[in-house]
Amino acid sequence: MSEPRMTIPEVRAALLEIADGMTSFAPATATLIKELVEQMKRRKPVRKTRAKLPKLTDNMRRAIRDYAGLHPDESQVEIALAIGTGPGRVSETLAGKRGE
């Protein structure tokens, strides 16, 4: 069985640990690894907007799941329009990633 995939922050930490262990016998390689790790950091958003949709409440989550169950042929966009939220929130709710 394979090990679970690492997150990017976990990979960065592991690479820094490897680089620290190499400093005495391969300083140039250790420096290069550290520079590459810096490139793996998330850039700040260029533009950020305010939230436009209302907060997703327990009632909305329940309504999404109920509506999807009653209308299995409707797309997530159609469900979102019916409930008054965005398709991303519908997707996350149905996948169990919001409020579970």
- As a percent range, the share of helical residues equals 55-70%
Quote the beta fraction.
under 5%
Element-by-element helix/strand order:
HHHHH
Low-confidence stretches: none
Question: What kind of sheet is the major sheet?
Answer: none
Average pLDDT, all residues: 90
Going by helix content, strand content and strand pairing, the class is: mainly alpha
> Mind telling me the C-alpha Rg?
22 Å
Count of individual helical segments? 5
- What characteristic shape results from the CA principal axes? elongated
Number of strands: 0
The rounded distance between the terminal residues' Cα atoms is: 28 Å
Describe this structure in words.
- It is a single chain.
- The protein has helices at residues 8-22, 27-39, 58-70, 76-83, 87-94.
- It is mainly α and 100 residues long.
- Among the domains are: 8-39; 58-94.
- The chain is elongated.
Notable traits:
mainly alpha, 5 helices, single chain, 100 residues
The gist of it:
The protein has 100 residues and is mainly α. The protein is 57% helix and 0% strand.
